[in-house]
Amino acid sequence: MTVNDITEILEDLAPLHYAEDFDNVGLLVGNPNQNVLGILVTLDTLENVVDEAIKKKCNLIVSFHPIIFKGLKKITGRSYVERVVMKAIANDISIYSMHTALDNSNIGVNAKICSMLGVQNPKILIPKKGTIKKLTTYVPKTNIEELKNALFNAGAGNIGNYSNCSFSTEGTGTFKAEKNANPVKGTIGAVHHEEEIQLSMTFLSQKEAQVIATLFKHHPYEEVAYEITTLENVNQNMGLGMIGELIEEMDEEEFFNHLKTKMNAQGIRHSAFLGKKIKRVAVLGGSGAFAISAAKASKADVFITADVKYHQFYEAENQFIIADIGHFETEQFTKNLLVDFLTKKIPNFAVTLSESITNPIKYF
Fold first, then answer.
1. Rg of the chain in Å (alpha carbons)
2. Are 62 and 28 in contact (CB under 8 A)?
3. Domains and CATH numbers, the chain
4. pTM
5. Mean pLDDT across the stretch 151-180?
6. Coiled-coil stretches, from where to where (predicted)?
7. Pairing of strands 26-29, 119-128
8. Residue in 144, 195, 203, 153 with CA at minimum distance from that of residue 174
9. What DSSP element (H or E) covers 159?
């Protein structure tokens, strides 16, 4: 299998199309056509991780965090980022990053946290906007079913928990084939009237190229009239953070012991206890303070995230508890998720969980 083959599999889990605009995801180092001998999965790609990949004969590193985040103007080995890139290139090792593409997946980072904590039926905390589009086209009545079914098979017509969704309006289309045309309907030089259907259906933006290619392939006309618009609908199956409920409510101290144990947290920074039971739990792996208001609006009893600043703890306003368990701690099990996913998709391939310690924060 090539690097490109592996990355296509990973995009089924976390399409890069849905990464945040500020992010740097995808293949960061390497040749997409290189044959892969083995895959090393890690949270961060540091020099010790590249050394581990060399030792274990893995020439593709699948990393959650991107090692290249800002543009590199020079690669001279003066920074840890430059040294990682140089060592990877020197040893023909490719590096692929997923980061916020996996954050936005409903089976990604935050789903893993919920699984670790026993949070049931989690829903997206901040659904992603701008990911649902609508195709509108015009097709002869005699060809409508063939085109609809082809588009459905290409992934169009899906919204939320529904599939094969479309809307049709009957009308009459007119056109005149000019000199160099090759009309399927009508004759050159004459205005033709055709009983047509205006067909509309939604699709996820990641499917746009596939949907358009299918439209051109199965539409009978030589020239296909169509339009694509972005809908205001939020995508309930994609976005940042999750919220769900524990099977049984817990006392605050009991829940925090549970949280500390399950997430291997060395310490928890949190807002004041409120003397209430914990039942409804919101989570957002990594730097998630921007979602405090969303967690509050969702009526969470506790919001688990990382990198919360001093004044942001005030935003709890004695309505719920904000718990900062550490950046690494919220994302540490992501590499286990990726190993499990790849092992199921390519069971006879060498997929290895990195043993390198990459957490830069130590506790005294």
1. 25
2. no
3. 3-101+333-353 (3.40.1390.30), 109-127+239-325 (3.40.1390.30), 132-233 (3.30.70.120)
4. 0.89
5. 93
6. none
7. unpaired
8. 195
9. none
Closest alpha carbon to 60 in 31, 95, 33: 95
Alpha helices in 170-282 (DSSP H): 208-218, 252-262
CA distance 245 to 123: 10
The closest of 58, 47, 46, 84 to 3, measured between CA atoms, is: 58
In the block, residue with structure tokens 């935003």:
315
With H, G, I as helix, E, B as strand and everything else as coil, classify residue 296: helix
Instruction: Please count the residues of the chain.
Output: 364
**Token representation of residue 327:** 């950046």
Question: Whose structure tokens read 């010790």?
Answer: 48
- Residue 207 identity: K
The answer to whether 196 and 140 are in contact (CB under 8 A) is yes
Spatial CB neighbours of 364, under 8 Å, sequence gap ≥ 6: none
Report d(CA 272, CA 316) in Å as an integer. Answer: 9
Q: Which of 354, 15, 60 is nearest to 206 (CA)?
A: 15
Q: Which amino acid is it at 255?
A: F
Q: Residue 295 has which token pair? A: 């967690």
Check: CB of residue 151 under 8 Å from CB of residue 143: no
Asked if 75 and 86 touch (Cβ cutoff 8 Å), the reply is yes
Residue-wise pLDDT for 241-285, tens only, equals: 999 999 999 999 999 999 999 999 999 999 999 999 999 999 999
